[in-house]
């Protein structure tokens, strides 16, 4: 090889190596949650704690694999949430709680920070992965939210996997419904014409309202995305829908600010438009993602009587995971590949 050709080859190899190094050094972040509530170490067996840690790690790795290859934040959050929907450990998909009527009704939403595209489904009973149905609504329809049988018909048209409602049954969640019914015996009679005012009662166990999974991500291209999925509230009645499928309440993403996914007492997150308010505090007041999320979770939400938590990542990759309950299943992973998983207050 002539010296000149060797120099050209060497320069080409150096440029290629530099380009690869630059690509691998681009920032990306994935954050997930599996619900907030009274999660205490003293109530957790070592086996169950290990199962939760494994499930959270698997969800992180699913999204990380996509992001490290230059994939989109949207693909990463969908992949992470799908894994949690398929796990009976979380109140979403396979592990969804039961309504007063003994059904599993599922809600989910997703948002693309690049163009503010959004999609959601609510009160569905036969869609295996509601988060994928929410994405289909966003990308393949003119709408933002579809509910009930209409959403299921749309999902079928899009070739999504439908299952018999019995797929979502888990014995632990069924026993949870029976326990709540025992605490509020009038709740069953309500569905049989009883004019009791027990619908106004607060559930005896605040954790009956919690349990949601979610993911937020920043990809190498600087795009943000958020996704949230839930089975809702144990013993919920009258077609109740919480914050999870409502864009701006339980889910929000905007490349100019942040991506947010919430978990907690949905009625309060709806009233405060928590996810969008976090974005607004960053955009209009110049707050950091940590300060903005703390303002909602540690001040505004509890001031109204609600509780819960959220996860967020801003456009620079900064992470926030505040909660005002005893614990929140949560974790994050960045471009260095080091996964962090936490359950309790630490």
Can you put this structure into words, describing what you see?
By secondary structure, this protein is of the alpha+beta class. The chain has helices at 3-24, 46-68, 73-85, 130-140, 148-157, 171-183, 186-189, 266-271, 274-285, 289-304; strands at residues 29-37, 106-112, 117-124, 145-147, 212-218, 224-230, 251-253, 258-264, 308-314, 319-320, 327-334, 340-344. The strands form two sheets. It has an eight-stranded mixed β-sheet. The longest helix is centred in the N-terminal third of the chain and has 23 residues, at 46-68. Mean pLDDT is 89; it is low at 19-24 and 188-205.
Oligomeric grouping of the chains: single chain
Summarize the main sheet: 8 strands, mixed
Low-confidence stretches: 19-24, 188-205
- As a percent range, the share of helical residues equals 25-40%
Query: Going across the major beta sheet, what is the strand order?
Result: 4-3-2-6-5-1-11-12
User: Structural class of the helix and strand makeup?
Assistant: alpha+beta
Helix/strand order, N-terminal first: HEHHEEHEHHHEEEEHHHEEEE
State the shape. Answer: globular
Overall pLDDT score: 89
Query: What is the radius of gyration computed over CA atoms, rounded to a whole number of angstroms?
Result: 21 Å
Distance between the termini: 62 Å
Strand composition percent: 15-25%
The number of E-state strands comes to 12
Number of H/I helices: 10
